[in-house]
Amino acid sequence: MKSIEDFILLVQEEIKQYHFPKQPKGLYEPLDYFLKIGGKRLRPVLTLLGADLFGGDIQKALKPAMGIELFHNFTLVHDDIMDDAPLRRGQSTVHEKWNLNTAILSGDVLFVDAFEKVSDVDQPFLKEVLKVFVQTAREVCEGQQKDMDFESELDVTEEEYIHMIQFKTSVLLGCALQIGAIISGAAKSDAEHLYQFGLSLGTSFQIKDDLFDYGTKSIRKPTGIDIKEQKMTLPLIHALQQADLDQKRWMINTVKNHHTDRKRVHELIALVKALGGLSYATTQMNAYKDQALELLAGYPDSVYKNALITMVRFVVEREK
């Protein structure tokens, strides 16, 4: 029996021992750097939990778990490029520290390594694991495209937004859990059920990130970053729906033309709060949290089920 902390240590040790080739240095050095700047390692831990829940061999789950983490880091490297972000986890991003071409190519190599690691499973499970992984990889890319589209589409509905964040964020959490279940020999229905749990967990996770942008307690994310990047998030979408015509025009004008004006951004944040955007987003975050817990209710009590429940609580209570 292992705790979440034990799984985190296992993942950290696996990453510590993971070494890219030495040459060409310009291709692999950025990847060693990027992996070592940290992260929550939530996704590989979920793979291990998914495996343990169905009595799987944790050692056999470590390599596909590492593949999930490499794929996640691939998306981060490319996401930083698209956002022109100078920092990731308080450190220089790859394209900032090296250059754009290096970041693109190094990110591509991360995807290749991710595919290799995810494929390192027992033969009877390989086809289903790859089917889930490839579908997820496609959906993550579709979600990222939608996220970029929404920067110029200010009439985004809540339904469209939830669909986008589920593809960009939630499906990979579901994939991590489902692959862990598959390689442990779980029934297909059980593996898919666990995927749905991951989908709800990931949606709650992303809405929590939305709330950080509006000044809810965070030790990581400065207030107003999403607005400055013209990102449509749930608090803003709901506030726009509640605003009168003059308020809506002012809010849209701020996002389109004044998103770098610090004073204006803080005025927008105050208006979003006044229109109930934060309270509504909090309600929705808790609804997806409750949905995730309900999906676990059918499993017998065990240390692994308790670990997943702890993970749900971590998502909504975290400060970073």
Helix content: over 70%
The tally of helices reads 15
Please report which band the strand proportion falls in: under 5%, 5-15%, 15-25%, 25-35%, 35-45% or over 45%.
under 5%
CATH architecture title: Orthogonal Bundle
What structural class should be given to the helix and strand makeup? mainly alpha
**Mind describing the biggest β-sheet?**
2 strands, antiparallel
The CATH fourth-level homologous superfamily:
Farnesyl Diphosphate Synthase
DSSP E strands, number = 2
Layout of helices and strands:
Layout: H1 4-17, H2 25-35, H3 42-53, H4 58-83, E1 87-88, E2 91-92, H5 94-97, H6 100-118, H7 123-149, H8 158-182, H9 188-212, H10 225-228, H11 234-242, H12 245-257, H13 262-274, H14 277-296, H15 303-317
Antiparallel strand pairs: 1-2
Task: Write a concise synopsis of the structure shown.
By secondary structure, this protein is mainly alpha-helical.
Commentary on this structure:
The structure is a single chain. The protein has 320 residues and is an all-alpha fold. The protein has one domain: Orthogonal Bundle (Farnesyl Diphosphate Synthase), CATH 1.10.600.10. Helix content is 74%, strand content 1%. Strands 1-2 form a two-stranded antiparallel sheet. Strand 1 and strand 2 form a beta hairpin. Helix 3 runs antiparallel to helix 15, helix 4 runs parallel beside helix 7 and helix 7 runs antiparallel to helix 8. The radius of gyration is 20 Å and the shape is globular.
Key features of this structure:
two-stranded antiparallel ribbon, 2 strands, mainly alpha, 320 residues, globular, Farnesyl Diphosphate Synthase
